[in-house]
Write a structure and sequence with these properties.
Layout: E1 6-9, E2 12-14, E3 29-32, E4 35-38, E5 45-52, E6 55-62, E7 68-73, H1 82-90, H2 95-100
Antiparallel strand pairs: 1-2, 3-4, 4-5, 5-6, 6-7
Length: 105
């Protein structure tokens, strides 16, 4: 199997996607091995999302294991209810959804 490799900057290579891997800093959002880390110091919860055109996904879990959510939708507006679902499942706000800037309504 052949894998293409990208050079993001001098001496840094990778195989995960095309484009600039950086994003502007946002309060309460950190990154660890591809997962978003949110909350004070990134210690409260982990999260990840998917956007594949007409299909969307969001997963979040409290690091202490007390709550979590895995959500898949077959709609390009599928994450439109993710904030409400996350609030029900985990309580509070989800800075990761704010970082995405996705309203979808």
């Amino acid at each position: 199997m052949t894998r293409s490799s990208l050079v993001w900057e001098e001496g840094v290579t990778g195989t995960a996607g095309i484009g600039d891997p950086s994003s502007p800093p946002q309060e309460g959002i950190f990154w660890g091995l591809g997962w978003g880390l949110q909350g004070p110091g990134g210690r409260e919860a982990i999260w990840h999302w998917g956007d594949n055109g007409a299909w969307r996904a969001y997963v979040a879990a409290r690091r202490d294991g007390s709550a979590g959510l895995v959500y898949f939708a077959n709609s390009h507006k599928g994450l439109g209810i993710a904030r409400d679902l996350a609030a029900l499942a985990m309580g509070g706000t989800q800075p990761g959804l704010d970082w995405l800037g996705y309203d979808g309504r």
